[in-house]
């Protein structure tokens, strides 16, 4: 078998390209050769990057030109007390991050929610989208195309679903801009995040559209999907899972554990998350929901770039008066676009698979889709805890001192 040094020499001599190494050696040897090459070229010791615990061949579907692994510290918060449509009971939530104080803050919020009796969570909508853009001669042909699509959704579903044994076409929503026609396909992708599934299925459906209408496909993605970028359509219509979590926190618990009042937290949320976000033109009306989502994504093998859509979160904090005159706090988060899965993609990697095992959600659920729903609900409660803790710290003016006390 060819050794890493020989392979690295051949790349430097121009005999091999860097992406061809797996054609001449096993995956771990190829990664070691690539690592050696980068060390030579950059003068950097890649000992830590090259120290990974899984078989490099298992990572082949997830990475190209592998030289090692990025090791991000992982912890757990919880137990997360959730009563959901799919999740129920207490769950430890693995979070991977380099941001000090994040897990401590989320854990504080979870402790408050747990003492208040837990949180409710529900997936209210589900649909992974892909929106191709077509060219037409003008508005008349656009109208003809839209009419045909509206009359033939079943035929489009048959074409799209012929490419997958799991995906189900839910809807096709047309949008016309001059001589451009966008068709926003939405799919139930069960326990998969489903972006690749939706893309392949939509490609098959597009062939039928081109065959039966004047429209010509320009791009399989026309950005009306909209994937991995801030977009109002995702904030309004949702993408992936739309999930909401809420809890009522007794006023005395707010005072004892968060050292402030329900009124103060509600005011901080209104002025910061609602008014401040509106003034900034933000699509996310929350304090830091993406923090929890991003850490959960890294831990459980989700597509980290889709954190941007998950930031389309609205946090509400309102006071609730009891009959005895005391004031409780109603807290909620609504994540319009949480794109998660428990099968496929990065969920198959050993570290991420173990993290899903901690949650009891590795692989497909019974019924299909229930594991991904449960993951969405647990992440939503984690995000709610993060919002509650941070807003409590802001309302009590403890944010800076908390970071100082933790030394970070």
3D structure, described in words:
The protein is of the alpha+beta class and 408 residues long. It has 3 domains: 56 residues, no CATH class; 217 residues, 3-hydroxy-3-methylglutaryl-coenzyme A Reductase, Chain A, domain 2 (Alpha-Beta Complex), CATH 3.90.770; 88 residues, 2-Layer Sandwich (Alpha-Beta Plaits). Strands 1, 2, 3, 4, 5, 6, 7, 8, 9 and 10 form a 10-stranded mixed beta sheet that branches. α1 crosses α2, α3 packs across α13 and α9 packs across α13. The longest helix has 26 residues. It is globular, with a radius of gyration of 24 Å. The model has no long low-confidence stretch (mean pLDDT 95).
Quick overview of this protein structure:
The chain has 408 residues and is an alpha+beta fold.
The CATH topology label of the largest domain is 3-hydroxy-3-methylglutaryl-coenzyme A Reductase, Chain A, domain 2
**Under the CATH scheme, which architecture of the largest domain would be assigned?**
Alpha-Beta Complex
Q: pLDDT average, as an integer?
A: 95
The first-level CATH class name of the largest domain: Alpha Beta
Q: What can be said about the biggest beta sheet?
A: 10 strands, mixed
The named CATH superfamily of the largest domain: 3-hydroxy-3-methylglutaryl-coenzyme A Reductase, Chain A, domain 2
Q: Quick one: how many beta strands?
A: 10
Number of helices: 14
Give the N-to-C terminal Cα separation: 48 Å
**What is the 3D form?**
globular
Structural class: alpha+beta
Regions with little confidence, pLDDT below 50 for 5+ residues: none
């Amino acid at each position: 078998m060819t050794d890493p040094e020989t392979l690295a020499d051949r790349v430097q001599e121009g005999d091999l390209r860097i992406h061809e190494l797996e054609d001449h050696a096993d995956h771990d040897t190829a990664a070691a050769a690539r690592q050696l090459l980068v060390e030579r070229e950059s003068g950097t010791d890649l000992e830590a990057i090259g120290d990974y615990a899984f078989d490099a061949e298992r990572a082949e579907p997830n990475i190209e030109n592998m030289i090692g692994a990025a090791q991000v510290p992982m912890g757990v918060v919880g137990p997360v007390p959730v009563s959901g449509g799919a999740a129920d009971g207490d769950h430890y939530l693995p979070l991977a991050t380099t941001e000090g104080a994040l897990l401590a803050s989320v854990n504080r919020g979870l402790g408050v929610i747990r003492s208040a009796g837990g949180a409710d969570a529900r997936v209210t909508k589900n649909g992974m989208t892909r929106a191709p853009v077509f060219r037409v001669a003008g508005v008349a042909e656009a109208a003809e195309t839209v009419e045909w699509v509206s009359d033939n959704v079943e035929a489009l579903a048959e074409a799209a679903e012929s490419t997958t044994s799991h995906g189900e076409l839910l809807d096709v929503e047309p949008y016309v801009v001059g001589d451009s026609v966008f068709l926003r396909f939405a799919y139930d992708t069960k326990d998969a995040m489903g972006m690749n599934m939706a893309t392949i299925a939509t490609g098959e459906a597009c062939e039928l559209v081109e065959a039966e209408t004047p429209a010509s496909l320009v791009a399989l993605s026309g950005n009306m999907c909209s994937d991995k970028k801030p977009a109002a359509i995702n904030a309004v219509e949702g993408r992936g899972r739309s999930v909401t979590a809420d809890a009522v926190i007794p006023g005395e618990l707010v005072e004892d554990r968060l050292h402030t009042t329900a009124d103060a937290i509600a005011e901080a949320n209104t002025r910061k998350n609602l008014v401040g976000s509106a003034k900034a033109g933000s699509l996310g009306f929350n304090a830091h929901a993406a923090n929890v989502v991003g850490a959960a994504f890294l831990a459980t093998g989700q597509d980290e770039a889709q954190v941007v859509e998950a930031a389309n979160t609205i946090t509400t904090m309102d006071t609730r008066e009891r009959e005895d005159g005391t004031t409780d706090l109603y807290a909620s988060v609504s994540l319009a676009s949480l794109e998660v899965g428990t099968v496929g993609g990065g969920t198959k990697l050993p570290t991420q698979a173990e993290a899903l095992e901690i949650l009891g959600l590795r692989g497909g659920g019974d019924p299909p889709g229930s594991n991904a729903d449960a993951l969405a609900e647990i992440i939503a409660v984690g995000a709610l805890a993060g919002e509650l803790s941070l807003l409590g710290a802001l309302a009590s003016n403890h944010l800076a001192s908390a970071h100082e006390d933790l030394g970070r």
